[in-house]
Amino acid sequence: MPADRFVVSTSIAELRRMLTAARREGRKIGCVPTMGALHRGHISLFEHARQATDIVVATIFVNPSQFGPHEDFSKYPRPLEADLDACRAANVDIVFLPAVDALYPPNFSTWVTVERLSESLEGRIRPTHFRGVATVVLKLLNIVQPDAAFFGQKDFQQQALIRHMVRDLDLPVEIVTCPTVREPDGLALSSRNVYLNPAERRAATILSRGLRLAELQLRAGNPQTQAVIDNVRALLQSEPLVQSDYLEIVDPDTLAPLTQPQTRMAVLLAARLGATRLIDNCLVELADSKSTELVGGLTEAAKSCLR
Ligand code: AMP
Q1: Of all atoms in ligand 1, which is nearest to the CA of residue 151?
Q2: What angle do CA 283, 284, 285 make, to 5 degrees?
């Protein structure tokens, strides 16, 4: 494959031919699975892949099996031309754009379930979601056979579950988790932000402010995670347009809820604004969970919640 060619392929066989040739030439392959409606969060994954690998494969596939029956599969945004322009501008080499029946042939009946990790948090509200995610990601990893695959921290539970699946099934791929890209006011970029009306968009900043408050309180040495949760919940409740779905402080690997703070913690939340569901999270890593000198070590994000 010429190094400067931008290829869009809908065919598994064609993609495999190109990638087999690239692999034979010793080139490292990076894969970035997406559902399209690309924004700067996705672009940052392409950039991480560009830096770490030689051939960047973006996949764009709105995966029906990860949507529940009453979710937004049919109205999920699909701005294909703009997405292809964005991929080209980000120096993606290959865009894989399969049709639904290419990935789900008639009588498709093999599913991947990552037990436990798929049942809490998002899984409690969207019971078949992670079965769909794990299955399609395994299929894409099998098709592309990348050296590394890049996911966003924005979907924290998803990347934890994929890491677990890769470990359990001995998949020969490195999973790279890239930081969440945010709007200047803190809102995490999401393809679903386009659903928010102006008032909801303004209200949505409370999610990242809630996370900053949690980070601040955990870093300040609050001895009980429940007290932190109560304080953040009170902040979220102060915004009438926001209905909180869950707010938990968990171990970042097992996603088990924590009653006591520990050195590494993830704060995960989901909330509804009108008909739109948004998720967000932050990872809190304390050098020493007992230290009281941490105020000086607050991240810029946490400090700004004091302003
Ligand atoms: P999606 O198209 O929503 O399935 O997302 C595709 C990938 O982009 C997933 O790995 C997401 O975690 C990642 N992603 C989505 N939003 C962001 C963001 N704001 N910052 C970084 N990565 C993101």
Answers
A1: 10
A2: 115
Mean pLDDT of 120-148: 98
Distance 37 CA to ligand 1 centre (A): 10
CA angle 188, 46, 96 (to 5 degrees): 110
Is 42 considered catalytic here?
A: yes
Average pLDDT of the chain is 93
Ligand 1 neighbourhood includes 193 CB (under 6 angstroms): no
84 strand-pairing partners: none
Q: Distance of CA 259 to CAs 119, 178, 251, 266, 300, Å?
A: 19, 27, 10, 13, 26
For the question of whether the overall pTM of this predicted structure is more than 0.85, the answer is yes
Q: Which residue owns the Cα nearest ligand 1 atom 11?
A: 152
Q: Considering 39, 42, 70, 129, which one is annotated as catalytic?
A: 42
Q: Look-up: residue for tokens 């040739």? A: 21
The phi and psi torsions of 7 (rounded to 5 degrees) equal -120, 135
User: Which is the closest atom of ligand 1 to the Cα of 35?
Assistant: 2
Residue count (the chain): 307
Exposed e or buried b per residue across 230-252, where buried means at least 16 C-beta atoms within 10 angstroms of its C-beta:
eebeebbeebebbebeebbbbeb
Residue 298 pLDDT exceeds 50? no
pLDDT at 299 over 90: no
Smallest Cα–Cα separation from 141: which of 177, 96, 109, 190?
96
